[in-house]
Amino acid sequence: MLAIDQREALRAMLAEHTTGPVSDATVTDFKLAVTRALSPFASAILLDRDFIWDRAIAERAVAPSCALIAAADRFIPSEAEFVADVEIDDAVVPDMVRDQGATALKLLVIWRPDEPAEPRIAMVRRFVTRCRAAGLVSIIEPVARRSRHGGRFDWEAGVIAAARELGALGADLYKAEVPLHGNGAEAAIRIACTALTRAIASPWVVLSSSVEPDKFPRAVALACAEGASGFLAGRAVWQPVIGMADRGAALASAAADRLKRLCEITDRAMVR
After folding, report:
1. For residues 172 and 132, what is the distance between their CA atoms, to the nearest angstrom?
2. Closest alpha carbon to 215 in 203, 233, 197
3. What is the CATH number of domain 2-271?
4. What is the DSSP string of 29-78?
5. Segment (H or E) for 106
6. Do 41 and 75 contact (CB within 8 A), yes or no?
7. What pairing do the DSSP bridges indicate for beta strands 102-111 and 137-144?
8. Please, what's the largest Cα pairwise distance for the chain?
9. Active site (annotated) includes residue 260
10. Where are the domains positioned within the chain?
11. How far are the Cα atoms of 106, 141, 157, 258 from residue 180, in angstroms, in the given order?
């Protein structure tokens, strides 16, 4: 599955390749280009309300064969982070997006070692209930972050702790960070993926943030070998084309080839 729901993070990526400010229209145009070029090769695509949802629906930018996932999270930034907090976006009305073609909703959850678990757990449970009431698949995406006050932080332990805390709350699909960011020995990555499988009660998939694009295929293969069901990722597929002169051609060739390869890896793993 393909993700193109990044917001201010995507604006920052685009800004690295231009001298002027990146407008909302520029962000939307890139998202639409990605959607049109790559949704024919994905089983589902994740879109956000802020920049693309309405345009993608109105312009039928998503391939008919590709299911629709709506991002149901509102990102709250800080001076240091594009996403410092998250809350359920009540402007994303489950019944409405379902009637527009959505089959699932996604919620990002920030996990921090120094913050109480109860608000995160309550938010996930409310999200799952909203999805079930509308007949939609619920997808949660916990990401481990350091304390707001700094200090030492074991990110690897945070990824597993988040799964243990949130992975059995009833969500239909869990979107997990890749252990070790896809770096390191195969055995270490596989051991961490096994820990995720044991902690998560539902099927789970990996995301590609913080993983080098060239290393993501290996990460998907190793995760699937230890219990994952595939990927829901964006950066590893389309980020390398951002700086190219002809983005359209690059999306249709290089990015499409990367997505097809990831799909083939997942398909082979699921057949076993």
Report:
1. 10
2. 233
3. 3.20.20.70
4. HHHHHHHHHHGGG-SEEEE-TTTTHHHHHHTT-S-TTSEEEEE-EEEE--
5. strand 102-111
6. no
7. parallel
8. 50
9. no
10. 2-271
11. 24, 17, 10, 21
Q: What angle do CA 238, 240, 242 make, to 5 degrees?
A: 80
Q: Is the dihedral of CA 112, 85, 22, 176 positive or negative?
A: positive
DSSP H or E run through 133:
helix 117-134
Helices and strands counted in the chain (H then E) = 11, 9
Closest to 158 (Cα-Cα) out of 139, 190, 181, 187: 181
The answer to whether 174 and 140 have CB atoms below 8 angstroms apart is yes
Q: Which of 31, 175, 215, 260 is catalytic?
A: 175
Helices (H), the chain: 8-15, 24-38, 53-58, 94-99, 117-134, 155-166, 186-199, 216-225, 235-238, 247-250, 256-271
pTM, entire model: 0.96
Both structure tokens of 203: 């099927």
Among 91, 133, 84, 129, smallest CA distance to 111 is for 84
Rounded to whole angstroms, the Cα distance separating 228 from 197 reads 7
Give me the tens of pLDDT residue by residue for the chain, a chain 272 residues long: 999 999 999 999 999 999 899 999 999 999 999 999 999 999 999 999 999 999 999 999 999 999 999 999 999 999 989 999 999 999 999 999 999 999 999 999 999 999 999 999 999 999 999 999 999 999 999 999 999 988 889 999 999 999 999 999 999 999 999 999 999 899 999 999 999 999 999 999 999 999 999 999 999 999 999 999 999 999 999 999 998 989 999 999 999 999 999 999 999 998 76
Running DSSP on this structure, what letter comes out for residue 5? -
